[in-house]
Fold:
Amino acid sequence: MFPHHREREQPIFSTRAHVFQIDPTTKRNWIPASKHAVTVSFFYDANRNAYRIISVGGTKAIINCTVTPSMTFTKTSQKFGQWADSRANTVYGLGFATEQQLHQFSEKFKEVKDAARLAREKSQDKELANTALTIAAPQFSQSPPVMCVNGPEDKLFRSQSADITLASEKERIKKMLSEGSICEINLEAELFTLQDSNSKLVAALHEANANVEQWKKQLAAYQGETERLREQVSELEAHGGQGPSELLKDELTQSLEELEALLKAKDEEIHILQSKKAEYHEMEHERDEAILRLREMEMRSSELERRIQNTEQTLSNSLEERDRMDTEIERAIEILDIKIFDLNDLRQSLVKLLDK
Structure:
């Protein structure tokens, strides 16, 4: 499938990112689609005048999404973004290594979406022109006459009012659910970014600690070598012409200066590692705050679910009440029909009596 498409499609932009998909069951948690960062590319199909986002992990495609004008790429943190694919019934998330990569992907997504919109408008204009040319004569349709009496009209009015109320209530519930899910997704994406940075800092600290121990040993060896060279220089200065030549003395002095410069460089590296350690503690504090906010969002989500259950119960009661009212209205209409029929019989009987 993919080699055939690659022959007619051309890549227009590529980057590397960690790919995630929303959990289809909970619609809240992210599921990693790749173990490592993979290549995510925009492709343009000249024959179909369409744009696609494709990412292949191993031997399978983990993203195969056609870009439509209705899609929107949302930045949920400094290094994480997401968009929804209604055709695949999923939400994709991308975690980038830098904020600049996220910005570049977002700008390219916006350009491709605008291009897809223009392509669709041109296609629609062309279809409208072809349709106008093929229409031979206007056609009209007549709607059947509507017959009603006061009883059914009142029933129809009540049903429409109840449907409008139920529809507005359902829209409000959907909005509440979407707001809670989006907030939780944003917090989970931010937590993922913090955990990723935390793991990188931990690895860097472990490596730095190992390097510090090694450098301390080297410093001790350099310091011993420096002291030995200084003693040799002192002996040369004390003995004057009886020791080695002036050339050897210059070489020893140069070696001593090089060792001192190396010691200074190692001290600066140790200072940099200590500052990184402080940054690691700050990242841990941010991670704890993110976890606390996530717990608060979970509590809010539980409250929303409780309110939704209550609202659903209220809706169910309203539906039952509406059904009961409909049944009573139908019964009243039947009684009215019988009364009207009896009145008609009575009128005919009176007319016959008058004729006689």
